[in-house]
Amino acid sequence: MTNFWNRIKEIFQPEQDSGEEGMELTFPKEMAPDEKFAKFFSEAGGHFFYCENEAEALGYIKKIIETEHISRLICFDSNLQKMLKSVGANFIDYPSATADFNFLTCENLVAYNGSIVLSSDVMSGRKIAELPDNYIIYANYAQIVGNLSEAMQHLNRTKTHRLPTGITSIGGVDSNPMNEPTAAKNIYLLIVE
Fold it and tell me: How high is the pLDDT of residue 181?
């Protein structure tokens, strides 16, 4: 039995030079899902903002609107519309060529590739091709899942009355497994505690 353990040690411990003291064997640490999401989302060109509260999110929304020179947003969610009103933003609740950006919630944030899952529910029954190519997404940490399978399981659990018909993803590394055409140019993500 001792011989077996010695062979196992030899596999995992490199030989030591006579001049070196003992080397420590380390294994790569698994990244937490939120860290993994932030890494892949940012690598794919997304803009990530951590917000401790809604007031901080409002400040970022105002800055994004100023920086991007947004004249009009599309926003379907009544709670998000209240936020836009509070910062004096011009918005509509229907698709229009006059809108520069979308302001949406999302279904999930996928750690595996840093993508954002959207559905017909958050897009008010619209297809992604009907909306502008620029997004501001409002989310929270509870929406982070490990992979697309977990995102679909989450949808099945939370949408028991009716599963959304249109489900797609934006951003992230290799983020469009449904092969739906998407040309998201700018994605700003506000994750609120």
Answer: 40
